[in-house]
Amino acid sequence: MRRGVPQICLAAVTVTATVVACSQTVTGTAQRAESEAVDDTRSYGYVDDRCGLLDDSSVQETLGAAEVTRPYSGAVCQYILARRSGSGSSMTIDVTFSWFETGELERERRLAEARGAVITEFDVERHKAFSARRDTTGAACSVTAAAGTGVLSWWVQLRGQRTGDPCAEAQKLMAATLQSDL
Is 171 exposed, middle or buried (0-12, 13-18, 19+ CB in 10 A)? Predict the structure, then answer.
């Protein structure tokens, strides 16, 4: 029985020495990791009947709409969606997607501020982004994010509505776009 005690003591000394030898203190300030562009040559434009890597049904599903129409596609994609409410009435949602291949997030933020938008900065799917809310003809908001060498924007307007959260709607579309890029 006594022969086991030195082995236990030896094991305890070895573990303690290992823990002390492997510990270290790191100085500095923690920095959030920023995502690198998956592919700087990625095209977020109108390709294969999709805008911003999303097809019409993805846009419709993301916003919970009953119907979706895309009247224009190209450098900018426009959508008109109809969402049914619990009371049976319908709400029209106008949506626009744009991609600037060589845009800068800071430039887009300055332009939104100059137009009187309320700016909120945040991250979407590890990409720097901001929302710009400006209710002029209905509750409206755009979310713009840095992606690759440019910027992406989703703009959502709840037509004729003064309430609601179009920023949350635009952020959902941006998250879906950036998730499809992973």
Answer: buried
- pLDDT at residue 21, rounded to an integer: 56
Q: Report the 10 Å Cβ neighbour count for 58.
A: 18
Residue 68 included in any domain: yes
- Per-residue pLDDT band for 163 (boundaries 50, 70, 90) equals confident
**How many whole angstroms separate alpha carbon 153 and alpha carbon 96?**
8
More confident residue, 51 or 97: 97
- Give the Cα separation of 144 and 171 in Å (integer): 9
Q: Are 59 and 77 in contact (CB under 8 A)?
A: no
Taking the model in full, what pTM does it have?
A: 0.75
Q: What is the distance, to the nearest Å, from the Cα of residue 16 to the centroid of all Cα atoms in its chain?
A: 46
Work out how many domains the chain is built from and give that number: 1
At 23 the pLDDT is: 63
Please check whether residue 102 is in contact with residue 129, taking contact to mean a CB–CB distance below 8 angstroms: no
Give me the domain span that covers residue 88. 56-179
